[in-house]
Amino acid sequence: MDPLPNPAPLASKLRNTLVRYHSIGDGEWRGGEKNKDATVWRKPSEEFSGYLYKAQGVVEDVTNRIVDHIRPGPYRLDWDSLMTSMDILETFEENCCVMRYTTAGQLWNIIAPREFVDFSYTTSYEAGLLTCGISLDYGEVRPNFVRGFNHPCGWFCVPLKDSPSHSLLTGYIQTELRGMLPQSAVDTAMSSTLANFYSDLKKALKT
């Protein structure tokens, strides 16, 4: 088990990595599966043997309120149908923490429940916000869970120029679920999970 990292350099490196992902040209992405809430693309990850996913959609609300629902805090567990528990293990400052959370089984439990320990950081980006995270090898794995690993992930949320009450939400997700799983099952789960994330979020913001 690794000790907790120094948060400042990790936060800076994480932000720079997400900004780099955000600048990847359209031609490098494949797929473009679309539903009424979001479009999801993917490309081979530079971090592991799976994919980096990009999801994008317009959400009808202001940037700060959207990000408050996504980042670690009281809202996330209420609406995210995949997340089954969340604990803040360490708070470095208001926008920076380490959290442990668990996710439900997926695909008729082909994918068993997972546990993650993530460093999370929220910062300004252009006229909006970026909330991002990366998994840490920290703490004992609880029984009945497989410990998954999030390579650099994050959500950019910026107000639309012509409609500031709407925001463009763009996510970059690369999750190594670990355990003995066929890659095709992981890919199916990731695309549908990201699409559901947007629809669940939109419902939560309207309540």
TrEMBL record:
<protein>
    <submittedName>
        <fullName>STAR4 protein</fullName>
    </submittedName>
</protein>
<dbReference type="Pfam" id="PF01852">
    <property type="entry name" value="START"/>
</dbReference>
<keyword id="KW-0446">Lipid-binding</keyword>
<dbReference type="GO" id="GO:0070508">
    <property type="term" value="P:cholesterol import"/>
</dbReference>
<dbReference type="InterPro" id="IPR042555">
    <property type="entry name" value="StarD4"/>
</dbReference>
<dbReference type="GO" id="GO:0010879">
    <property type="term" value="P:cholesterol transport involved in cholesterol storage"/>
</dbReference>
<feature type="domain" description="START">
    <location>
        <begin position="10"/>
        <end position="207"/>
    </location>
</feature>
<dbReference type="GO" id="GO:0015485">
    <property type="term" value="F:cholesterol binding"/>
</dbReference>
<dbReference type="InterPro" id="IPR002913">
    <property type="entry name" value="START_lipid-bd_dom"/>
</dbReference>
<dbReference type="GO" id="GO:0032367">
    <property type="term" value="P:intracellular cholesterol transport"/>
</dbReference>
<dbReference type="GO" id="GO:0120020">
    <property type="term" value="F:cholesterol transfer activity"/>
</dbReference>
<dbReference type="GO" id="GO:0005783">
    <property type="term" value="C:endoplasmic reticulum"/>
</dbReference>
<dbReference type="GO" id="GO:0005829">
    <property type="term" value="C:cytosol"/>
</dbReference>
<dbReference type="InterPro" id="IPR000799">
    <property type="entry name" value="StAR-like"/>
</dbReference>
<dbReference type="InterPro" id="IPR023393">
    <property type="entry name" value="START-like_dom_sf"/>
</dbReference>
